[in-house]
Inverse folding.
């Protein structure tokens, strides 16, 4: 038998960061919530030793917290990263990262399929600092190479899989192009988690998470994480100390608790989503299904080459208009009609109504948001129950 030299994801999710590197309190198994805004020193020499790096400690909660640091170490272990920085939300991680790593007057590259608020920050806020953006199809590698060369772009940013059409980036090729042209490669791993895809191993410089979703897994906390290259994370950490979007220690505790079951939750959601996608694809009331685990998905081959599971979100078009799609959603009995994803409860939404109602139909069409699009995030319910519920709701369309 070959000797195993590295722990698996489930073992690391449960134990990493909690036996080493934290102060023991009454021999507790669970990591304590260190609920303090500031920390004290015994004398001036101790302050000087801390300032000059001879003594590890904490100073003020905006710069670090023991509970938060434990979670950061756990995520580092799962991602195989040098460092991790938690923040108050996924969007706090996105905005702080971009502000820290893109110079004034710089140029970034992102993709057409993208979370709405990330897109808004890139196209509405960053231009105020002279930052321009090129938006490409997720598979347009020729366009990416051209922009990296002609625009001297400093950073590539994309989700993979993307939101809501679940496009999959060819990370090794994209990371290689970025490396050749001196650009930073950042992949938002929220939909996939390090259980399904380790983007740093595939070549990305940084992995980003909305920890609100799968990492926490219970729809009860906001969290964000930037993981990867230590020097780059350090630059983001420095700016976060100025901007202040830090994680609360109680939220960190909830995130820590959630991560311990991440592997088993994701594996279950992978299986449920794949079964649901296969069912939807053969139903007469469904026009198209977007799920990278299906051979019909445009990025299926890429997904198979770099993903160990295809995630818990299925997007699909109802054969009908906005009203017919709303009728289907209203007929569902199990999922909650709500934004977000990754929790133990199934959630469903109609992006045209939930996220893009403030856009005209023409504007939605320009952004690729169809009125008949549904995004379904499975939970931990029995797959047979979810499919039966979807079946009865589709009969209403």
């Amino acid at each position: 038998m070959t000797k195993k030299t590295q722990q698996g994801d489930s073992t690391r999710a449960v134990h990493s960061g909690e036996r080493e590197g934290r102060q023991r309190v009454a021999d507790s198994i669970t990591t304590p919530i260190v609920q303090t805004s500031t920390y004290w020193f015994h004398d001036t020499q101790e302050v000087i030793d801390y300032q000059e790096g001879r003594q590890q400690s904490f100073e003020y909660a905006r710069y670090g917290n023991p509970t938060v640091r434990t979670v950061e170490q756990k995520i580092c272990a799962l991602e195989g990263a040098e460092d991790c920085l938690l923040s108050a939300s996924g969007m706090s991680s996105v905005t702080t990262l971009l502000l820290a790593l893109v110079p004034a007057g710089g140029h970034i590259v992102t993709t057409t399929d993208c979370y709405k608020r990330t897109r808004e920050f890139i196209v509405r806020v960053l231009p105020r600092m002279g930052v321009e953006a090129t938006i490409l199809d997720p598979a347009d590698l020729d366009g990416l190479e051209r922009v990296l060369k002609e625009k001297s772009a400093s950073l590539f940013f994309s989700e993979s899989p993307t939101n809501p059409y679940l496009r999959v980036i060819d990370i090794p090729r994209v990371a290689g192009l970025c490396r050749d042209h001196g650009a930073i490669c950042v992949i938002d791993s929220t939909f996939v988690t390090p259980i399904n895809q380790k983007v740093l191993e595939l070549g990305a410089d940084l992995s980003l998470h909305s920890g609100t979703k799968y990492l926490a897994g219970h729809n009860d906390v906001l969290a964000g994480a930037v993981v990867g290259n230590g020097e780059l994370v350090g630059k983001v950490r420095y700016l976060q100390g100025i901007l202040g979007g830090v994680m609360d220690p109680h939220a960190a505790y909830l995130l820590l608790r959630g991560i311990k079951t991440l592997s088993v939750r994701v594996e279950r959601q992978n299986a449920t989503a794949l079964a649901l996608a296969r069912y939807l694809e053969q139903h007469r009331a469904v026009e198209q299904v977007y799920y990278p685990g299906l051979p019909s998905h445009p990025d299926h081959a890429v997904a198979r080459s770099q993903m160990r599971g295809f995630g818990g979100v299925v997007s699909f078009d109802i054969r009908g208009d906005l009203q017919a799609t709303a009728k289907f959603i209203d007929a569902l009995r199990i999922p909650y009609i709500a934004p977000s994803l990754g929790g133990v409860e199934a959630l469903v939404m109609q992006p045209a109504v939930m996220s893009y109602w403030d856009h005209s139909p023409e504007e939605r069409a320009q952004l690729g948001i169809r009125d008949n699009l549904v995004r379904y995030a499975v939970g931990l319910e029995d797959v047979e129950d979810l499919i039966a519920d979807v079946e009865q709701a589709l009969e209403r369309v």
User: Anything to note?
Assistant: Residues 262-281 form the longest helix (20 residues). The chain has two domains: 9-259, 262-394. The domain at 9-259 is CATH 3.40.640.10 (Aspartate Aminotransferase; domain 2).
